[in-house]
Amino acid sequence: MDKGLGVAHLSHTQVGSLDSGELWQPEESSSIPMLNTSKESPCTSKESPCQFSTASRMPKGDKFYDNPDSEEDVQSFSSMASMLRQYLSAPSPDSTSHGYMIHTESILKIAEGIRNPEMPEKTVGDEVAQTKVQANNSMVFVWDLDETLIIFQTLSNGQYAKLFSGFKDPWEGTMLGHRWEQLILEVCDDYFFYKQVEDWNEPNLMALQDYDDGIDLKSYDFDHDNLGLIPDATNKRKLAYRHRFVRHLYSKGLEKLLNHEQMMEWQLLYKATDRYTDGWLSAGRQMLQECERANNVGEDGLSGLAQAMGKLEMPEDGHRLASEGNCNILVTSSTLIPSLVKCLLFRLDPYFHPSNIYSSREVGKLQCFRWIYERLSIVKPVKFCVIGDGIDESEAAQMLAWPFVKISTGPYSCHRLPSLSMDILHHTVTVGYELSNKV
User: Fold this and answer.
1) Does 1 fall in a domain?
2) Is the backbone of residue 62 left (phi > 0), alpha (psi -120 to 50) or beta?
3) pTM
4) Where is the composition biased (Polar residues) (predicted)?
């Protein structure tokens, strides 16, 4: 969830309200296409049933995820149903999570019915083979940012420390959060034109590319081109120049931008926050890397689909697309420029191409998800999986029948990011798409 604190809408005077401003409406020339969907089916899949805790989570490679073609494997699935019944009957510290029981009940029915004698001419292997995500199928993982990949908002407001009932120092957490806010705003202002574009918030850096005439920006004077607030073609062209330059800065990385003091503050702050959150930041980066490399076919460490998504920002490269691989996309309700800077400061930039970062603040997450679907439809058929902590992304995923994995920051929650694995994500996508196909 990315609402309501500091950099969710960083202002030099006060924290902005999520409800401020009118909804952004795309121009006809906008490079982010609309998806016209006349039928929206509810998503009936959520997180994997094996997300119990770090200690009890099934290990990677367990037959729980394999194709059951033996009696031992069938017993594993029967055991799965038993485990789910116990889990459903037990009180959960995250029992208020939106739609969780519906998703888990659906998964339970799948587990119990995998070897149904009333299903003629189907073996157990055939049933699971129809639902299993094959290695050559690309998946798109759509991530939330705050309190999903990083711990940020709840540091500043003290909520993260409260979850630990005295085992975390609330003062330390609050100070870490405030230091992050200060550093993010400083980097936004010093390098990313935030003072100039604070009142402009496009959903994506490519939203205004049609206004960009491609001039050389090496000698362009951004400080004296008189960017105004009127959304006419002239100002949109000036904003498009800034977005192109921001993409260039993002691709270079912060090491080539920050001064010595900022570098020291950044490195110490990251280490202190990762320690305070019990390795949450490191777990997020590791999970992104595993997602992207699961079907990796690129020599540079990026998956084929990730390469393709990056190339789509240049029209002449639009058809030189790799055919395989997974991709990470970020959809956050924070404003766009601070979100890009947060990705850099929290060391997520190797896993998110700048054109794959969306701000849903003005348009909502459902609209962003639709744009992503339409954008990827020109590449190849893919499967989607949404990972987040909030109702917004859960409901948007449900509207498009995309599987959703719940993340929760509570110390006793079964949905903590460090407990997540590729096995869980693969299983969630497998079950989710099987259920949506039956709707």
Assistant:
1) no
2) beta
3) 0.69
4) 27-56
